[in-house]
Amino acid sequence: MPRIFTISLILAAFLAVSAVPGQAFFGLFSSGKSLTLADGKALIPLDGLKTGEARFFTVPLDGKTIKLFALKTPDGRVRTAFDACDVCWHAHKGYAQDGDFMVCVYCGMRFHVMRVGDVSGGCNPAPLPSTVEGKNVVITEAALRTGAGFF
């Protein structure tokens, strides 16, 4: 492998890792667990969500891969959002978690997890409506379609 390529690869990896200090790398290096639509709904098992820990998912829809994340906050609420925002969506970098904050991987803006799903616009994670039904978080196909333009 040419030396310049190796150096470039190491530098790129360093910049990606150092862009968001202390982050959970899941948002950067993985596309998330794939969900399927059945009867117009994508289901996330509640027992797979840990309080304070964002989980990333993808859903195939009309040839696109819709990216989202879900988390349970300390107040017991389940919050869902697209892994994109109104401003930086074009970079297709999404968010990573740093403790109690979701961080835009593109611009570095930080958003407290208690704002996810409630605050929209700017670089906030774009809210994704969901409900809790029994042992699942339910996201409708219609709700997923509202953010398809990000992807």
Question: What's the short story on this structure?
Answer:
This protein has 151 residues and is an alpha+beta fold. The chain has helices at 3-18, 26-29, 141-145; strands at residues 33-34, 41-45, 55-61, 64-72, 78-82, 95-98, 101-104, 110-112, 131-133, 136-140.
Low-pLDDT runs of 5+ residues are 5-30
Strand order of the largest sheet: 1-3-4-5
> What's the number of helices?
3
Stated plainly, the CATH topology is called Rieske Iron-sulfur Protein
* End-to-end separation: 34 Å
Task: Provide the residue-averaged pLDDT.
Answer: 85
How many domains in all? 1
Q: Label the overall shape.
A: globular
Q: Can you give the helix content as a percent range?
A: 10-25%
The CATH top-level class label: Mainly Beta
Give the percentage of residues in beta strands. 25-35%
Give an account of the 3D structure.
There is one protein chain. With 151 residues, this protein is an alpha+beta fold. It has one domain: Rieske Iron-sulfur Protein, CATH 2.102.10.10. The protein has three helices and ten strands. The chain has helices at residues 3-18, 26-29, 141-145; strands at 33-34, 41-45, 55-61, 64-72, 78-82, 95-98, 101-104, 110-112, 131-133, 136-140. Strands 1-3-4-5 form a four-stranded mixed beta sheet. Strands 2-10-9 form a three-stranded antiparallel beta sheet. A three-stranded antiparallel beta sheet has the order 6-7-8.
Note the topology.
Layout lengths: L2 H16 L7 H4 L3 E2 L6 E5 L9 E7 L2 E9 L5 E5 L12 E4 L2 E4 L5 E3 L18 E3 L2 E5 H5 L6
Parallel strand pairs: 1-3
Antiparallel strand pairs: 2-10, 3-4, 4-5, 6-7, 7-8, 9-10
